[in-house]
Design a protein that fits this description.
Layout: E1 15-21, E2 24-30, E3 37-41, H1 44-52, H2 55-97
The chain binds zinc ion.
Length: about 110
């Protein structure tokens, strides 16, 4: 049997009941806590599929996955930018620590 998803509203495990209707099997799936229910008479798999099909939830999960990926890429970009900035600052610090006589001619300031 396919595993049933928890209740989409309270995440409690659902309750089930099976019974015979003539030569068919009927199945009812519901949540004891918040009374959300799905009742299908027929093959068990149909009731399970209906209980487990959640287009809005699946859409939101896909959106969360997309946004998580976008966030991770942005974090990597920020980290790379920070590393480049630190390297530039290190270079500036090194240049400023070089004695004036070693500066390139266009860097020498004259007060004249
Ligand atoms: Zn519930």
């Amino acid at each position: 049997m396919t595993e049933l998803l928890p209740c989409p509203f309270c995440s409690d495990p659902p309750s089930t009941k099976r019974w015979d209707v003539g030569h068919k099997k009927a199945m009812r799936i519901w949540c004891d806590d918040c009374s959300v229910n799905s009742c299908v008479q027929g093959v068990d798999e149909i009731a399970i599929e209906k209980w487990n099909t959640r287009p809005i939830e699946e859409h939101l999960r896909a959106e969360v996955d997309r946004l998580t990926k976008e966030r991770d890429e942005a974090r990597k970009e920020c980290r790379d930018y920070r590393n480049r900035l630190v390297a530039h600052l290190y270079c500036i610090q090194r240049i400023n620590s070089i004695p004036t006589e070693y500066h390139l001619p266009w860097e020498n300031k004259t007060d004249e």
